[in-house]
Each structure stands twice: as C-alpha cells, then as structure tokens.
Amino acid sequence: EVQLQASGGGLVQAGGSLRLSCAASGFTFDDYAIGWFRQAPGKEREGVSYISSSDGSTHYADSVKGRFTISSANAENSVFLQMNSLKPEDTAVYYCAASVVAGTLLPGLYNFWGRGTQVTVSS
Predict the structure, then answer these.
(1) Cα–Cα nearest to 12, from 92, 115, 96, 79
(2) Span 30-44, average pLDDT
(3) What number of other Cβ atoms are within 10 A of residue 73's Cβ?
(4) If you average pLDDT over residues 22-31, what whole number do you get?
C-alpha cells in the first residue's frame, strides 16, 4: 500500500521556523520525485518545492526561495522541508506527493498524495 505521511506542522509566529517531514512507503522511493504543495483556504493548491530522489536536484517556488530548504534521506524514504522566516501568507495545509515525472511542480503529474499537515503562521 502506498503511503505518504506528512507531519511537523503547527502554529508559529511570523519569523519563526518549522520542519516538515514526509515519510514514504509502498513504492520505489528512488524512482520518484517528492514534492511539497500547499493549499490555503479558498486558494488553489500551490507547488512549493520538489526534490528528485535519484539525483538530489531541487526546485523552489519563487515565493519560498531563500527561506525554505528541501532535503531527503533516501535510506529512510523520507523528505524534509525546513521552513525559516515564515510569513502569515505561508499559512496553509502542506502536502507531500510523489511523481515519476522529474522536474515538475504540476499537481496533476503527481501520482501519490499524502494527507496534509496544517501550518499556521501568526502575525
């Protein structure tokens, strides 16, 4: 059974930090890129960052570049998102997902999705 479990969300003040974790199982981790997405109330799901499990290449949305860092621990089938200098506009439910297509943050190209974790940034 494919599972992607996001965790680590919470309530933090603006300027603070959180570290999200995504634990994957049920598929060959090295064959997939893992992406982080977020969705705020009333807004479309937005791609935040991805990492290719095969070569470690990464990509960030402009809105988080320089503040968020994605990393992976392939031996643990896990991906992390370190979020620093958080802003109220980062408030959303954050999801991790897996795609066999490398180099994309298009949600429609992601094969597997996990349940999200809520991140709330207060001003």
Answers:
(1) 92
(2) 95
(3) 12
(4) 93
CB count, 10 Å around CB of 36?
27
Give the model confidence (pLDDT) of 51-64 as tens digits.
998 889 999 999 99
Burial of 70 by CB count in 10 Å (0-12 exposed, 13-18 middle, 19+ buried)? buried
Cβ pair 50, 105 in contact under 8 A: yes
DSSP 111: -
Has residue 103 got a pLDDT over 90?
A: no
Name residues whose C-beta falls within 8 Å of residue 104's C-beta, 6 or more positions apart in sequence: 33, 35, 50
Cα–Cα distance, 123 to 95 (Å, whole number)? 23
Distance between first and last Cα of the chain: 40
For 8, counting Cβ atoms within 10 Å of its Cβ (0-12 exposed, 13-18 middle, 19+ buried), the class is middle
